[in-house]
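lol so apparently i was supposed to do this last week
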Amino acid sequence: MKNIKQTIFKEAVNQIISNKMLRGMAVKQLDKYLYTSLMSMGRAQLEQEKLDQYAFMSSIVKQARKNLDKGYIKPDVMKKMAHVFVGDNYSPDRHQKINPIKEAYKEKYGDYPPQFITLSPGKGCNLHCVGCYASCDAAVAEKLDFETTRRIVREARDIFGSHFMVISGGEPFMYKSDGKTILDIFEEFNDMFFLVYTNGTLITEGLANKLAKLGNVTPAISVEGWEEQTDERRGKGVYHRIMKAMANLRNAGIPFGISLTATSHNAEILLQDDFYEHFFNELGVTYMWQFQLMPIGRGKDVTDLMITPEQRVKLYKQWSHLVEEKNFPIADFWNSASLSSGCIAYGRWNGYFYIDWNGNMMPCVFVPYYVDNVKDLYANGKTLADGLQSKMFKNGRKWQKEYGFENPDNRGNVLMPCSIRDHYKNFKENILTPDAKGEDEEAEAVLHDAEYEKMLEEFDDELQRLTENIFEEKYLKKVPEPHEA
Ligand code: SF4
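anyway here it is w/ iron/sulfur cluster bound
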């Protein structure tokens, strides 16, 4: 039965890519398939979570179709991507029991492996963004040597059975080690699919054509809002360079996305539909990832940039509207947790973990604490899988199960999914372990900062107050108490 379903799925994807005449019909067929597959998933998933997942998947298919119709995505590029990504990586069946590598991992470690790793191989960057940690001098910036980078990617594929990896930075297209660049990784691992977070400024016509030839890379370009906000943070003229990069990607036929950090400065822009309409309808963006600023650091500058609990709730409503009604494929790291049954960090099944340019293994890009370092693991004859067995990672996975996807009768509030941001007290008391170290001085310092702790806990209390009714009525289907007259 599973094989028949997979065949229908792959066949519909092929029709959408290759056959313009039948594309409309194939989209309908795939949409129906996604709906029935997602809605028939187990009871651990709340019905509204399944509906949110369907709306998101459906919006990806519809947006990809629009961009194929407009010629912004070339069928031959998409075919290669589908072969690697759709063929091997995606299945609405989340446990993917057909993958023997994942089954072997479960047999050995008791749980399914993570779906992907976010890897930042180098800290070097060519821009000087306000407040960014990356280093401008690529020659001296911290980085992983090429062999270590290569081994991480190989282990992700061969030990976790993963065919998808996120590359972040610094600026990934600046990475160079032992005469090799990140393109050498893409070329060698041509059975894997890579999403690259990039500032976009190095995507020339030549690079776009190379990526099209490789067919296993999609760039997600960072913007801060409109031209004014982007140039204010990233430097004058950067928005124009991004527009040029997008034109190069459209001409080469590569699907691309945007990524954006929501702050108090751009929250109002993000609450307007015209921003999304411009990027999706006019610039040919295929997906958007939104993050919300995680304040790591003290000082008023950082806390002032954080969005308020009220803004977060408004952004949640805006996200629902954009995905369900406008069919824009957008995922917001804190507001879209219904897409993944909660927090995906700590290397959980169907989730991920993060490795930085020093080789430190962290639960998530927003949880800047590590116990194991990849280079040390390798020097001691161990693998990435050993790093996932630290007490901190296990504590995180235990919390995720209890709070979320393995506790169907007592689900935690899906609008407050973040293990660190939304449950800071619990993070410090029950997840973080004494052997964990901060990624940098700021991360270390906030652990001993009572004011910072108080600020986050007050945020969490207020967020709980503002979201509990939404969660209960929309997700738990509880009927609201009548108000007293
Ligand atoms: S720790 Fe927070 S930001 Fe990271 S995956 Fe979990 S919910 Fe998302």
